[in-house]
# Entry
Amino acid sequence: MSDLLLFVQLPQLDNIVSGEHENLYLAAAYLEWAVRQSSLDLDIARLPPEFDNATDDALLDTITGMHPRFIACTVYLWNLERTLALMRRVKTALPLTRILIGGPETAKKHPLLFAHCPADVVTIGEGERVLPEILAALQKGTRTHDAGTAWKRGRGYVWGDVEPPEMTLSTELPPPDWPCLAPDSRGMAYVETSRGCPMRCTYCRYHHLRRRVSLLNPEPIAERIRILRKKGAREIRFVDPTFNAHPRFTETLRLLAQLNHDRKLAFFAELRADRLTVEQADLLAAAHFTDIESGVQSLDPKVLKAIGRPTDPARTGEGILLMAERGIRVTLDLMIGLPFQTRAAVEKALDWALQFPRSVNIQCMHTLMLPGTTLRRQAARLNIQYDPLPPYGVLETPWMSRDDFLAIETRLTATPRLRTDIPTLRFVGQTLPDLFPHPAVIPVPWPDARLLPKGPRFARQAWVFRGSSLISHRAALCELITGAIRNSPHTLWQFVLEPETEEPLDLLEAMTAAIRKEPPMVLDRYAPVALRGLIASRRILIRLRRGRNYQASWIKAARDCLEESFF
# Structure
């Protein structure tokens, strides 16, 4: 076994086929720098970008072929279940490999993380200081005593009891010329100017993960931007939770405006609109901030007080207009399902948001009861019902029934400016804009079962069943679908019928029933899908053969049938 530390971060899988899918290895870049500054002598690697569309089997083969001594996994709510399942297989194949898990999803008393967990070590919060110590302890056969680190002992875990020191951004952040921070192939780069958040929102974990806010001064921020610009950056995203919480925010904007006077860079940040001044709005435009995201969450003072987010809605609206009037694209965030929030309050907030210019994007998010947050601890007392599995969406509160949630979601779907997710564009047609790339065509009937695909080639896989009288092979098709899902449960599947002529709708109903028997994925639990009882992770589509005449009534009936079950 080599002295290799392998960073693994599985991507968020979605059904969108246009554009590139982002899987930002920023945490791995920070952690690699910290390990290289220690006395540890380790080779360090991460899975290359082409593995973002790899199947679990391919990932397993690649990881086991590398024989890493250590694997460090970053988990988020959308990759937790898949990461745990993959690492259990890795642990079976490589029992001596030590697996470490950290990231935003880790928390004490987590409902999933510690059930059949393959990790030797689980850590919460910042990893820059603790990871080198954990790796050194694993090499020596000892353990650390950090309060945020759990070590496997028998079938359980033992937590430390010593609070680890918090990192100082100005001295421990990787230097701006560190190659791992260079712009990606699209010219995108990421910059962190503050660690922590001064706000205490009950639904958020930022303030739980460190006691104080650590900052970079304006001059080092500008220097990082200058170096990234020289390296070919075209867009820079500030990853701070609240960019204008920086006490020297105005000064920072002045330096960015001077540096980017030719507007060759575009900037993105999240900030509080209610704190924005006219001067700062002018400087945002001068520096060429093209996109800003601003959390409003609710207009109801009682709700804002309950979630620990004191905000002046009127002042928030003024700040949003200041940016919009200067040509900045603003994304306005609203939340649904907060404590004391009624359906009428949500409707009022939506009406308010729709009054802004169309350049203002409105993003409506259902409240998530994230493990480790204050709101999740309050859930029982507040009698808030939520899904116990990721993404932990709120299902019902004393102030909003399930019918209220469904009514709000129906309005969001029916209003283009409010639509939160993009449903399937076309279920039936000669062209299918949602079809995954590289579909595998399977003739029906297949001449030899040995010629059937052994499994998916990609994490997003389409199988096209082409033939006549497909209904007569209904049982075999359903068996093939069931086997595909069970053999690769973390793959997004499309099962595409390509019939010679109209097929009975009984075929669609049988295939749909086979899909519904299998456990849902995280994609199926998001509110727009779950509230309607739909399926998003596995779908049935129909591709019409060119040169064939299909009855319009059959096309409509088939489309209606699929839209009743799939998102």
